[in-house]
Amino acid sequence: SQTIHQWPATLVQPVGSPLSLECTVEGTSNPNLYWYRQAAGRGLQLLFYSVGIGQISSEVPQNLSASRPQDRQFILSSKKLLLSDSGFYLCAWTNPWSEAFFGQGTRLTVV
Amino acid sequence: AQSVTQPDIHITVSEGASLELRCNYSYGATPYLFWYVQSPGQGLQLLLKYFSGDTLVQGIKGFEAEFKRSQSSFNLRKPSVHWSDAAEYFCAVGHTGNQFYFGTGTSLTVIP
Predict the structure, then answer these.
(1) Which one of B36, B102, B106 makes the best mutation probe of the A interface by having the most chain A beta carbons within 10 Å?
(2) Tens-digit pLDDT profile for residues B20-70
(3) B93, pLDDT greater than 60
(4) Residue B99 to residue B4: CA distance in whole angstroms
(5) How far is CA A1 from CA A28, A90, A101, B39, in A?
């Protein structure tokens, strides 16, 4: 069966520090991968999606970047965090004709 | 451009009452439609999905949703709400797995 791992679960980082959140998928190949951010009262905002290794599409220009170094690995990064980067980050994967499957999320607090 | 609208930010219902959460979408092709539920601090769990066929879809936990193409809607319903249904509910639209978009969510409070 397919599983998705996302870590860490919580993170507190100072303003200006770097960020790296990792997401890996097991039990499937060539999935579409997604990073979402959920800010309080603002729903789920699609940040990045990827249809293959090295292929990244950005939905919203911002302080973050994403990379897909391997088929089932998706990384969300920042060189310098801003206070506005605080939120709940969710990784997800889909295959064609399927629903999205989500990780348990990372609560990021930038202080 | 694709979009999903959930007009109700917050809904309060009494336990045992019926529930309907609204969802409207804008999509150029035939959409795939989904409802997810999120408990506080958790990921999202799929309640039900519509790809094609019967427009009334049954899901988990007693939920159902009806796809109405003429109204571009996919409203979620439950005949009798339980206290454990209190959560955030998200409608989503996708197509062949690319660009999966969510609405802003509806927060459900259930009062005894």
Answers:
(1) B102
(2) 999 999 877 778 899 999 988 778 899 999 988 889 999 999 999 999 999
(3) yes
(4) 12
(5) 8, 20, 12, 23
Nearest CA among A92, A42, A44 for reference residue A66? A92
How many whole angstroms separate alpha carbon B42 and alpha carbon B27?
Answer: 28
Interface check for B83 against chain A (CB to CB < 8 A): the answer is no
The reply to whether residue A107 touches residue B96, judged by beta carbons under 8 angstroms, is no
Q: What is the pLDDT along chain A (111 residues), one digit of tens a residue?
A: 778 999 999 999 999 999 999 999 998 888 999 999 987 766 788 899 999 999 999 887 688 999 999 999 999 999 999 999 999 999 999 877 678 889 989 999 999
DSSP category for residue A41: T
Interface check for B52 against chain A (CB to CB < 8 A): the answer is no
Measured CB to CB, residues of chain A less than 8 Å from chain B are 32, 34, 36, 41-44, 46, 49, 51, 88, 90, 92, 94-105, 107
Q: Are B38 and B44 in contact (CB under 8 A)?
A: yes
